[in-house]
């Protein structure tokens, strides 16, 4: 049971998860088990799966737009990291503002690519003026992209968690694990918790996602760990006043 449970609209997304491209997968079933274990009274999820093909991304965008407009906070579970681009886009349109993106990931996802992919989506968002605060990155940055943490610009924040940000010794069921180097930091659950709490301090969470879990990529799917990540998000404090959503702009003209 989570006090803030009724603020969320849950979208369960099995669109890629970075591994097998064709055919059904069991990501959805793994996520349903995690939900049942961590959040028994969770709201009914909307399902989007890979068989929706090219419209899957637009469904994510539309649903996030609709959820925010209805006064809810989208919580996107599953999918690869390109999913975040479309979820963010729907949220941004609904709040009529440009929330900062706090991006927890072993990868910067800022590689140059014309298409929006799981390895280029932050580059596309940066180009559109979004403040992308990437934390936990353990790969070299491409030329021309600053690795420096940006200043906050918005009191609205979108949280995106690529579960590969965790130390592979904590969770190995991901497509592209990156070991913790000699320089650290050790990205364990305590680290994740403190990053999330720092990210939300003094501002409103407009949406969150947990992406890139590939349960079949390792002998141990790591459902307990992913459940812990979900629980950390659900535990995040709701700002004073409890109203975490943004009223859509209303015209007073008649
Ligand atoms: Mn990523």
TrEMBL record:
Gene3D superfamilies: Ureohydrolase domain
UniProt keywords, alphabetically: Hydrolase, Metal-binding
Domain of life: Bacteria
Pfam families, alphabetized: Arginase
Listed InterPro entries: Ureohydrolase, Ureohydrolase_dom_sf
Source species: Brevibacterium otitidis
Family: Belongs to the arginase family.
The name this protein goes by in its record: Arginase family protein
């Amino acid at each position: 049971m989570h006090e803030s449970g009724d603020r969320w609209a849950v979208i369960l997304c099995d669109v890629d998860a970075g591994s097998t491209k064709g055919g059904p997968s069991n990501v959805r079933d793994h996520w349903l088990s995690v939900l049942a274990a961590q959040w028994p009274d969770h709201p009914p999820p909307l399902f989007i799966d890979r068989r929706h093909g090219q419209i899957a991304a637009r469904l994510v965008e539309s649903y996030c737009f609709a959820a925010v407009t209805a006064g809810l906070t989208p919580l996107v579970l599953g999918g690869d990291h390109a999913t975040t681009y479309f979820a963010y886009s729907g949220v941004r349109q609904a709040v009529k503002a440009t929330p900062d993106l706090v991006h927890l990931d072993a990868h910067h996802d800022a590689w140059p690519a014309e298409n929006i992919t799981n390895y280029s989506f932050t580059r596309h968002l940066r180009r559109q003026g979004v403040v992308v605060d990437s934390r936990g990155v353990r790969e070299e940055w491409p030329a021309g992209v600053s690795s420096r943490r940006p200043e906050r610009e918005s009191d609205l924040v979108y949280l995106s968690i690529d579960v590969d940000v965790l130390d592979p010794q904590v969770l190995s069921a991901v497509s592209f694990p990156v070991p913790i180097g000699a320089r650290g930091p050790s990205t364990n659950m305590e680290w994740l918790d403190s990053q999330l709490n720092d990210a939300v301090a003094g501002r409103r969470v407009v949406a969150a996602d947990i992406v890139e879990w590939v349960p079949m990529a390792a002998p141990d799917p790591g459902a307990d760990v992913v459940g812990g990540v979900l629980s950390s998000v659900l535990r995040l404090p709701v700002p004073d006043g409890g109203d975490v959503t943004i009223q859509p702009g209303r015209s007073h003209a008649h």
